[in-house]
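Problem: given the chain below (72 residues), write out its structure.
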Amino acid sequence: MCGGIRGGTRRRGGVLGYPLKALYEEVAFIAYHFHWPPDSILDLEHAERRHWVAEISSVNQRVNAGEQALRQ
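Solution.
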């Protein structure tokens, strides 16, 4: 384990070794839609952050489906 974590330093996110690209994508996605600061998003546990990503995606899908139905 990393010495900083073993030494009691506060961890962010809750998952060691999570792909950095995926983390950036999640933070950008939530920040874009909720206008939350990145530090607040990074403070979320991994599962909670993924939950918010799923909820935002669900809302976007419903909105897009509604807009598409109006065009037909």
